[in-house]
Amino acid sequence: MTTAQRLVITAWSAVSPYGIGRKSFVDGVVTGAPTVTELDQERWQGPSGRGCLVPGFEIREVLGAKGTRKMDRVTALVVSTVGQLLADGGIGTGEDTALVLGSTMGSAQSIMDFTKDVLVRELPYLVDPAKMPNSVMNCAAGACAIWHGLKGPNTTLAGGQAAGLMALDYARRLLIHDRAAKVLVGAAEEYSAERAWLDRHSWPAETPDRVLGEGCAVLLVETADRALPASGRAPLAEVLATESRVYLEGDPSKVLVACVRSVLARAGVEADEVWAAVPSSVGDRGRDEREVVRSLFGSEVVDRVPTGDVLGDTGAASAALRIAAVLSVAEHSPEAAGKVALVTSADRYGTVACSLLRLA
Amino acid sequence: MTIENTDTTTVSPERAARIKTVVCEILEIGEDEVTETSLFIEDHEADSLRAIEILASLEKEFGVVIDQAELPRMVNLRGVHQVTAESAGW
């Protein structure tokens, strides 16, 4: 790095099983209300009858009928979340606004539907051409940019559960190299029967208490020297550092510890300065990740942001939603000002990542 | 032998109505907003993907094959009528 530019989060929003928009997310995190529901088995023919879905998220009702006819669910989640963020803050877009979106694989449903049509239709090319764009991974980010006029760099990062943290680091690079004045950075995952079946067959041994969730969280990140003078947006948190590593064996614990130590060292933060430490995984792996983080920081710090399994396994969105949860708790905790928060992620495909924030 | 199709008389009112329904659904406009000559791209905010979608949907609707080389002619309802009628042999 050359000159140390301070990066700050100045706005955020989320669409999650708590509902649509920032306020419903803050209220949900603070009350910790459960979000698991029994799914309509006619509509969601997945392997499990339960899921943590965004309540009332019918695309054409949420976004209107225009331009949504062939829009898939993950795209709608991103378009809706970014729309909430921009509207809340009266934030303008254009050439200087970038979007960095974390994902697992885009929409499993769109990819599988399109591929299935090739195989089962009368002729292989009798597919629905309007659904072709949905089958590529960067559809959501591209469609969101068109919808909201985000004409800066447009990036989709496949990073599994760690995607939100990797996207945050990608946003840092865009900003310090002056590729954008502000970056919308987040991650999204949709629920679908297709994703649920892929998950079931990929991880048949997972405990049944892990249910799938969905959602999207998006942060507005900009350089501190530009945020306030340009727009009057006050920082909510400073982005201190992000580190990521890979692990090749089944247990990510040692790599997670090394990753946490390394992000602390990079930011020049001592372990006892960490006010909140938030693991992202759920189910068995969530318990393991939580134990590792607890061993490093103690229960009080780990329990400060009560996310737990309450949103279900939100896949790529999980770490981004945890950052939103940190900001939600900080909003109700005057003592959080100036304190450090850590968000960790141990993706089961071999990526470990963590990010450090200093709350404003 | 070539057959010149210069008007829409070869498309029956029933088929014309079906074509209009297909086109208007894809363009996300009401059937009263489109005329025989209003342009899909210039007047109705269509793009190249929508044009392909119109072609593919008409193929499915009428069980015909429309050569993609005909796309440049399918700029409005009149062009669509001509191309569809020729492709279907109406």
TrEMBL record, chain A:
- Span of domain Beta-ketoacyl synthase-like N-terminal: 5-226
Q: Name one Pfam family in it.
A: ketoacyl-synt
Q: GO MF annotations for this entry?
A: 3-oxoacyl-[acyl-carrier-protein] synthase activity
Q: A single GO BP annotation from the record? A: fatty acid biosynthetic process
The cross-references to InterPro entries, in alphabetical order and at most eight, read:
Beta-ketoacyl_synthase (IPR000794), Ketoacyl_synth_N (IPR014030), Thiolase-like (IPR016039)
Q: Which UniProt keywords apply?
A: Transferase
Q: Which Gene3D superfamilies match?
A: 3.40.47.10
- PANTHER family, from UniProt? 3-OXOACYL-[ACYL-CARRIER-PROTEIN] SYNTHASE, MITOCHONDRIAL, POLYKETIDE SYNTHASE-RELATED
This protein is called 3-oxoacyl-[acyl-carrier-protein] synthase II
This protein's species is Lentzea fradiae
Automatic annotation (TrEMBL), chain B:
SUPFAM superfamilies recorded: ACP-like
Q: Which InterPro entries match?
A: ACP-like_sf, PP-bd_ACP
Segments forming domain Carrier: 13-88
Task: Kindly provide the name given to this protein in its UniProt entry.
Answer: Acyl carrier protein
Q: Which organism is it from?
A: Lentzea fradiae
List the lineage, top down: Bacteria, Bacillati, Actinomycetota, Actinomycetes, Pseudonocardiales
